[in-house]
């Protein structure tokens, strides 16, 4: 399957509700993300005949509950069938404080006819425009603090919302999804307005070299099949599609017999089933027949090459190979083959390309679909490197796997990594709906478990066999046409009989359930113990039973002072990133293998500026962080291994050279990206420190020059001067023994002292002049605009709650800017406001940013100014403030219930000597705000005359 990182990139492109996804990513280079989706072409009745043998024994006889029949239960997930054909999956998880409702429609770009490309994705947008009973869906989502989105892929479209776990919220979510299944407006007025947003989304994808090359390779690999068409569609089709044709498409596919509903999280199963019957049961089963699609892509009979010439910071080479459908028995072996080739640092491409400095970044994943898909392997090379050499090395390394089969060690390692990721994903019930949507599109959700079982049995011979079958030159799409007198065709198997694939599978043991822990401030403080080690390291331990005995931890080490850290930024950042690349006892690969064996996800990184509610997304050399996710039984061993990494790093020269090359490649790529350039210049403006200061943000040119001069000796000296546990925090949340971990960390870290004392480098407020700057980025279809203010306050200021709520109403989670610039005028695909506030210094940052077509800049700026003027002149209404208070406080509640977020907050509060009683007081202050107080705070701290604005785009357009 796609890696998590790659899937996130691909699933972010075509989603209509950007405001939740980019709230914390405005000041990161995440607006380049793009999304697509996968549908399925089989009626529920036909599918039932294929899956009747899969699941627990009791599933052989359906259990009648109301009007829904119980079909099957596998590992805690139970499927029910309504008379109208709707399939409903229930996945109760009492350890969650949220409920996720996910509905998957078996339709996507694969099912679009001539002139209809992009129609499935366009519908995804329009379905958010509302129904007669739900006319303002964005407001309803915001009112409930819901995380929500919709995504479109080749064979499915899905929508989901995650809300606090209450019966009222579940009723609302089910009612909304049932209503928009058949009653969405899909009007000409909304189509006209939404087109500009979709076009903006198209242009956003055009800016990224890898993503646009991926589309070109995909289109070159398919001559006839719709997989060759990008899900966003042809601009001409999206511009000209008649509304009646779009409405017909909607009425055909948005029906209960073509949908699978999943409810996951904290809920009562019987009550949920009753509500599903109530809201979805009355929808009649349609009389129409779903159209059948019969196009089969012919066997490829020669190498194909596509060359793309555009502005960009890096060179990219990408190869695609046709592979069988995702249900085929070869799929697990192809997954292992992909991992053997593309993993870092064990993969063959890493050794052939990264270690030799022919590339700075690798790509490897497979599109596993209902029909034959593609395996992608590629690399990004620095501008000064030879692309010809990178291309030749990539192809030679891939196709040499036939002559030099993988070793048992390579196969075992790859298989263990894949199985570990599946197990970790299944421990998150709120993510299972997204994962299962992919398998639903291939034929049945239980295929995930079939795939896992098959993966466990993959052998060296299996991997060698699939390499021989599919990694052939004549099955490769890279670019150019080269005549071949004797073509060597790779026959791609058809999809197997689904009944044969899954008939013997009975399901594994259900994952251990967690406790129903209410993540209230009082419960968190009452359960948390706080201690200090002799070294000075603070411990904050919150034990609780979790699903799958999961445990998360975050360790932060703080070091140095302003004088000692001057002119050492690059060395400090590289030191934190070098830790996991080898110890005196183990190589980087041995460390990775051991973490995989322990089912642990562990990352080592530099820290981020400040410890406020929303951390400033700039790495800083004054601290290092370690993030851990594993299980109870493995946690002590993981702590020991992490300690080895921290206390016995080797800093091997080859790994150091690779890391420098990777970081240089990242910086080079940012040179021509509008989003990165706007973010960089905005942050440089509000960080007015002298060059060399620990908080100074260098220009891209300075950062590249500094990075090139840093040596391995500089990194080793930085480590010797600063690293230790004299100052820092270890926070742990989840299933663990607090006494055991206290004793163990005392033994491992209690005597680890830092050579130099830690003295926090304060953040400084200055009254900065406003600046307006326009950056030209030729040949970039999407532009970026950003504005920023530096404010003189911190999070204990009396005005802070009012500013936080004002930001929420404007763009942090509210709707003013989103409604005006996207919903009403269709100028921007996404606009967001973020408030970064320090807990230690009187210095805050308010930032606003959005994407737009270059020709719409004046309209964007005028609309933004008008909305900000209106807020500063008239403030907000009683109703706006009331709704904002509810949604803002609900999102805080949801955040506290997510262990990866909670563990960071527990650690930060340990550093600040703060308990969650602070949250209680803060939330009381939010609850007590009046519109007059909010307006007074805005007028006191914000002035349009002091807003710095940076715009980047191709202004020749």
Radius of gyration: 27 Å
The percentage helix is: 40-55%
What is the CATH first-level class name of one domain?
Alpha Beta
**Any idea of the CATH topology of one domain?**
Cytochrome Bc1 Complex, Chain A, domain 1
Largest β-sheet summary: 8 strands, mixed
Quaternary state of this entry equals single chain
From the coordinates shown, what is the CATH architecture of one domain? 2-Layer Sandwich
Mass-distribution shape = globular
Quantity of strands, as a count: 24
Strands across the major sheet, in which order?
1-2-3-4-8-5-7-6
Count the DSSP helices.
35
- Indicate the mean pLDDT: 88
Q: What is the name of the CATH superfamily of one domain?
A: Metalloenzyme, LuxS/M16 peptidase-like
Which structural class fits the helix and strand makeup?
alpha+beta
Strand content: 15-25%
From the N-terminal CA to the C-terminal CA, the straight-line distance is: 39 Å
Indicate the low-confidence ranges by residue numbers.
1-54, 56-66, 479-484
């Amino acid at each position: 399957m796609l890696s998590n990182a790659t899937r996130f990139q691909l699933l972010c492109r075509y989603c209509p509700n950007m405001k939740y996804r980019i709230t914390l990513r405005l000041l990161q280079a995440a607006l380049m993300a793009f999304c697509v989706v996968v549908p399925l072409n089989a009626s529920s009745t036909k599918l039932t005949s294929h899956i009747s043998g899969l699941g627990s024994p009791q599933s052989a006889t359906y259990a009648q509950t109301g009007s829904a029949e119980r079909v099957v239960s596998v590992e805690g997930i139970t499927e029910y069938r309504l008379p109208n054909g709707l399939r409903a999956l229930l996945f109760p998880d009492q350890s969650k404080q949220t409920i996720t409702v996910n509905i998957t429609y078996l339709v996507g770009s694969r099912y679009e006819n001539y002139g209809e490309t992009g129609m499935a994705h366009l519908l995804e947008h329009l379905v958010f425009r509302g129904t007669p009973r739900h006319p303002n869906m964005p407001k309803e989502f915001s009112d409930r603090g819901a995380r929500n989105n919709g995504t479109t892929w080749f064979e499915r479209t899905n929508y989901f919302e995650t809300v606090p776990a209450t019966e009222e919220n579940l009723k609302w979510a089910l009612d909304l999804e049932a209503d928009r299944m058949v009653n969405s407006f899909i009007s000409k007025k909304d189509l006209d307005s939404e087109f500009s947003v979709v076009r903006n989304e198209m242009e956003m994808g055009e800016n990224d070299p890898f993503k646009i090359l991926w589309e070109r390779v995909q289109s070159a690999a398919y001559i006839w099949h719709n997989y060759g068409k990008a899900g966003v569609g042809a601009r001409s089709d999206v511009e000209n599609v008649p509304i009646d044709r779009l409405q017909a498409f909607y009425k055909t596919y948005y029906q209960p017999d073509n949908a699978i509903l999943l409810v996951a999280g904290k809920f009562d199963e019987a009550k949920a089933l009753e509500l599903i019957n109530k809201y979805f049961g009355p929808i009649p089963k349609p009389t129409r027949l779903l159209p059948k699609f019969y196009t089969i892509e012919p066997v490829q009979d020669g190498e194909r090459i596509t060359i793309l010439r555009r502005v960009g910071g890096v060179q990219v080479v990408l190869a695609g190979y046709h592979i069988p459908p995702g249900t085929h028995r070869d799929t697990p072996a192809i997954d292992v083959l992909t991992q053997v080739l593309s993993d870092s640092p064990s993969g063959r491409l890493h050794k052939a390309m990264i270690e030799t400095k022919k590339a700075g970044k690798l790509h490897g994943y497979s599109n596993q679909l209902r029909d034959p898909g593609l395996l992608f392997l590629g690399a990004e090379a620095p501008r000064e490197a030879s692309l010809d050499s990178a291309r030749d090395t990539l192809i030679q390394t891939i196709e040499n796997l036939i002559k030099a089969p993988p070793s048992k060690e390579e196969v075992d390692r790859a298989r263990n990594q894949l199985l570990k990721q599946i197990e970790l994903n299944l421990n998150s019930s709120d993510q299972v709906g997204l994962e299962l949507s992919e398998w639903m599109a291939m034929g049945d959700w239980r295929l995930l478990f079939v795939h896992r079982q098959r993966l466990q049995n993959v052998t060296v011979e299996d991997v060698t066999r699939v390499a021989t079958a599919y990694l052939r030159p004549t099955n490769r799409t890279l670019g150019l046409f080269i005549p071949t007198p004797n073509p060597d065709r790779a026959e791609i198997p058809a999809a197997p009989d689904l009944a044969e694939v899954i008939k013997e599978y009975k399901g594994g043991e259900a994952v251990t359930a967690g406790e129903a822990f209410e993540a209230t401030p009082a419960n968190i403080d009452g359960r948390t113990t706080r201690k200090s080690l002799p070294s000075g390291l603070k411990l904050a331990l919150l034990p609780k039973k979790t699903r799958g005995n999961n445990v998360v931890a975050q360790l932060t080490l703080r070091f140095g002072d302003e004088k000692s850290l001057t002119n050492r930024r690059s060395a400090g950042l590289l030191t934190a990133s070098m830790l996991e690349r080898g110890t005196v006892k183990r190589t980087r690969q041995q460390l990775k293998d051991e973490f995989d064996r322990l089912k642990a996800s562990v990352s080592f990184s530099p820290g981020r500026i400040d410890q406020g509610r929303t951390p400033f997304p700039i790495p800083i050399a004054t601290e290092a962080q370690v993030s851990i996710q594993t299980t109870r039984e493995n946690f002590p061993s993981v702590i020991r291994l992490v300690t080895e990494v921290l206390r016995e790093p080797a800093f091997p020269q080859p790994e150091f050279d690779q890391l420098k090359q990777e970081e240089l490649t990242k910086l080079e790529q940012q040179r021509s990206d509008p989003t990165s350039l706007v973010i960089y210049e905005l942050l440089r403006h509000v960080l007015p420190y002298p060059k060399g200061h620990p908080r100074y943000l260098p220009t891209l040119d300075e950062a590249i020059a500094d990075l090139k001069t840093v040596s391995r000796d500089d990194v080793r000296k930085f480590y010797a001067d600063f690293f230790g546990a004299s100052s820092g925090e270890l926070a742990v949340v989840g299933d663990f023994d607090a006494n055991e971990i206290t004793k163990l960390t005392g033994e491992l870290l209690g005597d680890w002292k830092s050579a130099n004392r830690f003295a926090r480098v304060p953040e400084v407020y200055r009254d900065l002049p406003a600046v307006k700057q326009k950056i030209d980025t030729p040949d970039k279809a999407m532009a970026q605009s950003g504005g920023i203010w530096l404010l003189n306050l911190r999070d204990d200021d009396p005005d802070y709650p009012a500013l936080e709520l004002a930001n929420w109403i404007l763009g942090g989670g509210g709707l003013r800017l989103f409604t005006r610039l996207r919903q009403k005028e269709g100028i921007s695909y996404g606009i967001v406001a973020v408030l970064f506030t320090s807990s230690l210094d009187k210095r805050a940052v308010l930032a606003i940013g959005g994407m737009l077509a270059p020709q719409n800049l004046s309209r964007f700026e005028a609309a933004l100014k008008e909305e900000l003027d209106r807020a500063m002149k008239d403030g907000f209404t009683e109703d706006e403030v009331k709704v904002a208070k509810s949604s803002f406080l609900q999102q805080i509640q949801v955040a506290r219930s997510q262990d990866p977020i909670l563990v960071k907050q527990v650690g930060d509060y340990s550093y600040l000597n703060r308990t969650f009683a602070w949250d209680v007081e803060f939330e009381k202050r939010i609850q007590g705000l009046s519109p007059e107080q909010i307006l007074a705070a805005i007028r006191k701290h914000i002035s349009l005359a002091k807003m710095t604005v940076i715009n980047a785009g191709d202004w020749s357009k």
